């Protein structure tokens, strides 16, 4: 790679990478790295850093080799969609191999790449099948996907709203990852799960086991409903209602292993959930016993500060609330469960249910660049998701500067290794792609051997 700076006729410094001349913003002159999205840099990103070969291997699920059980049409029946400059949207893009996909991406430089299902026939040729009168164009395989957006938590966070995210509200995404990942593995037996930062305000989940990819819409809806708990809206005081004499084991595990600690040790204080009258009234409205709410309101209005400056007023008030609701005199199960309902209301994952229920939904590809923030959609390790920091995710401009600073590289296939994207690609390969492909190979081999044995048995008759 040739990296360096030249000066144009107007005296501005330009960055040259691999023959591409890119105007360098003034901020780059020995100062700070600019964040954000710059369409001019996409060509270099897709040509040098985007792990296209890995995406192709993933989307092929082992059907890109010479094994007799491979389906050579598999990848070619996958839908991709491109969003180009000026919001030009190209759906039903399909490619027969990695080379075709690579050439199209490099030529079009999409602002966003979305991945759809595998169809019964090549999506690009769907019209030909429609004209034949055979209604054969239908999705036959699709990862089980989940989309969680921080905007759905605006009623329980006070630091940000809308698309804004900070380290005070990001723990809500950490909670969602932990709760859903554990359930997918322990309750449903899935193994090949990929979590990805959306690039701005949320996370995506791809469940890629073969049994997940072949679920019907009805089965997907059943799994989505398994996670459904948050049913309220802005007009409801109680957004979560925990019914029945005992909680479902999944909810018990979520509460004891994840939600309770995150609520009490993190969110309660950083969001100041009980610090003002407006905020604590919102929580008191969730308690159906007027005598208790009156007693707590009286205490909190008369004692606006905790007894000690060292004590967090949110923690003090929360302990008072718990004591009243969970004391021995509160015999009604529903009243004692109010504490759990409050915690669930503020912390439990809020899914976009429709995305998970239907096979034909598209989802942004990992390692895309968010056009509003310039951040890369990097994988998140669910085992260490509490360490993930969305504010330090590599940006397009930062990666381009790192490429420019790295100088000549003889190993052109691993230029990402010299950038801050390297760690994310290594994580994708080691924790997700390699185990997935190993499993695909074993499944393919087992399936082939079964068919071979059946064929032998038929012949023996």
TrEMBL record:
Cofactor(s) for this UniProt protein: Mn(2+); Mg(2+)
Listed GO biological process terms: DNA replication, synthesis of primer
GO cellular component: alpha DNA polymerase:primase complex
Recorded superkingdom: Eukaryota
Family annotation (InterPro entries): DNA_primase_S, DNA_primase_ssu_euk/arc
UniProt EC number: 2.7.7.-
Keyword Transcription belongs to the record: yes
Keywords annotated in UniProt: DNA replication, DNA-directed RNA polymerase, Metal-binding, Nucleotidyltransferase, Primosome, Transcription, Transferase, Zinc
Gene3D superfamilies: DNA primase, PRIM domain
The keyword Transcription is assigned to this record: yes
A molecular-function term among this protein's GO annotations: DNA-directed RNA polymerase activity
Protein family: Belongs to the eukaryotic-type primase small subunit family.
Protein name: DNA primase
Taxonomic source organism: Quillaja saponaria (Soap bark tree)
Upper taxonomic lineage: Eukaryota, Viridiplantae, Streptophyta, Embryophyta, Tracheophyta
């Amino acid at each position: 790679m040739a990296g360096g700076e030249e000066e144009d006729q107007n005296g501005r410094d330009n960055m040259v990478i691999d023959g591409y001349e890119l105007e360098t913003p003034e901020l780059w002159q020995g100062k700070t790295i600019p964040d954000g999205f710059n369409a001019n840099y996409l060509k270099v990103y897709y040509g040098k850093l985007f792990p296209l070969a890995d995406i192709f291997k993933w989307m092929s699920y082992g059907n890109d080799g010479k094994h007799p059980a491979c389906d050579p049409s598999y990848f070619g029946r996958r839908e991709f969609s491109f969003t180009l400059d000026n919001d030009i949207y190209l759906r039903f893009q399909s490619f027969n191999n990695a080379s075709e996909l690579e050439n199209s991406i490099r030529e079009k430089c999409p602002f966003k790449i979305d991945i759809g299902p595998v169809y019964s026939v090549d999506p690009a040729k769907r019209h030909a099948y429609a004209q034949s009168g055979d209604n054969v164009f239908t999705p036959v395989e699709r990862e089980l996907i989940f989309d969680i957006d921080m905007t759905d938590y605006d009623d329980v966070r006070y630091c940000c709203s809308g698309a804004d995210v900070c380290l005070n509200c990001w723990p809500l995404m950490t909670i969602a990852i932990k709760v859903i990942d554990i359930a997918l593995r322990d309750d449903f037996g899935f193994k090949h799960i990929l979590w990805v930062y959306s690039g701005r305000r949320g996370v995506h989940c791809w469940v890629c086991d073969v049994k997940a990819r072949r679920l019907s819409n009805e089965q997907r809806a059943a799994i989505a409903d398994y996670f459904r708990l948050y049913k309220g809206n802005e007009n409801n005081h109680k957004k979560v209602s925990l019914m029945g004499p005992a909680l479902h084991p999944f909810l018990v595990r979520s509460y004891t292993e994840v939600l309770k600690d995150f609520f009490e040790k993190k969110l309660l204080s950083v969001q100041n959930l009980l610090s003002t009258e407006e905020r604590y009234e919102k929580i008191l409205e969730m308690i159906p016993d007027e005598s208790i709410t009156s007693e707590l309101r009286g205490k909190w209005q008369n004692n606006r500060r905790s007894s000690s400056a060292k004590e967090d007023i949110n923690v003090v008030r929360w302990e008072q609330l718990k004591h009243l609701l969970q004391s021995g005199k509160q015999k009604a199960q529903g009243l004692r469960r109010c504490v759990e309902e409050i915690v669930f209301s503020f912390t439990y994952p809020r899914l976009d249910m429709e995305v998970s229920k239907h096979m034909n939904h598209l989802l942004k590809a990992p390692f895309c660049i968010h056009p509003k923030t310039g951040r890369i959609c990097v994988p998140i390790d669910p085992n260490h998701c509490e360490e993930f920091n969305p504010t330090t995710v590599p940006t397009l401009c930062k990666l381009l500067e790192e490429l420019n600073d790295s100088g000549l590289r003889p190993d052109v296939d691993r230029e990402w290794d010299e950038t801050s994207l390297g760690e994310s690609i290594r994580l994708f390969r080691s924790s997700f792609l390699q185990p997935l492909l190993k499993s695909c190979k074993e499944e393919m081999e087992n399936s082939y051997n079964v068919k071979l044995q059946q064929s032998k048995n038929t012949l023996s008759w």
